[in-house]
Amino acid sequence: MISQITKAEFYGAVMNQHPAITPPIDARTLAQSHFRTLRPGTPFQPRIDALALTNDWYNWAGYRAPHSLWDEELEYFAIRSQAALFDISPMTKYRIEGPDAEAYLDRVTLRDVTRLKPGRVHYTAWCDDEGFVLDDGTLFRLSSTRFRLCSQERHLPWLLDSAIGYEVSVEEETEAVAGLALQGPTSFAILRDAGFAGVERLKIFDLAEFAHDGGPQGNSQVTISRTGFTGDLGYELFVPADKALSLWDRLMAAGELCGIRAIGYTALNRARLEAGLIVANADFTTAEHAIRADRLRMPDEIGLGFMIDPEKGHFNGRRAILEARAERKLRHVLVGLEIEGNIPAEHAIVYYRKSQEVGLVSAAMWSPMAKRNIAIASLRRPYGDRIVDDLWVEIYAMRELQYQKLMKRAKVVPRPFIKLDRRTANPPADF
């Protein structure tokens, strides 16, 4: 049996053994100090803090990021009806350059990097040797030998190990490079009015560099790509961290008459769901985070099979992926669902014939744009693949202070749930 001692006795014993130690502060203060320490902010944090009326924060890769800033419903509609500014600085960013950069990235990622021309971006993913997805992200080709890889999770040790034998350098630049997503129908007009001459020439997945903060044309400081996570007309801007606040102010000043508003993640998450886009460790578990073997996913099991070219040379997981296809070993499928009623089915269990559990909803909402109750779900094959009828979701809805179980019919439907012509229009819409 462990004897009980007082705090004073404990601290006294410690002091006797270590007399040079400064007497400790109150234990309660010690216990609470960790929780009172704010997470570090991004280079845009002074501007975001000034707009944060809700004080609704979350941890994004160690950074303090907003769920919402002023009103999550209106922030969503800012994306769809005007322009929304979202801080993407916490997104992990790697600078990959060198004579072998193309060959190296072609080896570690799924898509054919030789087809990615300078000034272009593509969405890609990468797998372990067993063909299970480690993460997905965007690859920016800044020049013939220089790339930027952006992802949700950190992979520097893996990337460095994979670079052995290649003449290439890999360096994380998350803290050095700040990022903003400018999304919505007036986003182009804002960039034009902000003085980014030639931005109208950017087609979907194009990128270019522009002068900023007094920099001469030969010393461009902002990389702008026509990309985003909303399924809408939009752009992403990357700038050195010390130029972040001047870029924010430049956009906000130019966008005042175009309805520019800063937003948090909740609004962005709703827009990405309408666009049918997936989030790592939300809609699927990445290979490094999965504890149970049945949580691992191959690209074909989460809708990323389109990235794989069987004729491409060797890449991580190629043999396992093609073998799973040939031998029909794929166990799961990620599907879009349309659910009857208007109650979101987030994290609902999916059933076949109301009795057999066949999957789980990972994201759901009532879509104001699609006017449908939509969801993304991971189902166990053949359900959602060959068997798509008689599917149901189990929803628990609050009814006068009591939860009521509802069984609602679900229909497998294509993604995206909405498709906006302005996303890909050339030239982009003007306001």
UniProtKB/TrEMBL annotation:
Please report the stretch or stretches of sequence annotated as the Aminomethyltransferase C-terminal domain.
Answer: 334-419
Instruction: Offer one Pfam family short name for this entry.
Output: GCV_T_C
Query: Keywords of this protein's UniProt record, alphabetized?
Result: Transferase
Keyword set includes Transferase: yes
- Known SUPFAM superfamilies for this protein? Aminomethyltransferase beta-barrel domain, Folate-binding domain
Instruction: Identify the InterPro entries for this entry.
Output: GcvT/YgfZ/DmdA (IPR028896), GcvT/YgfZ_C (IPR029043), GcvT_C (IPR013977), GCVT_N (IPR006222), TrmE/GcvT-like (IPR027266)
Recorded GO terms, molecular function?
Answer: aminomethyltransferase activity
Q: Where is the GCVT N-terminal domain?
A: 73-293
- Protein name (record): Aminomethyltransferase
Name the source organism: Mesorhizobium shonense
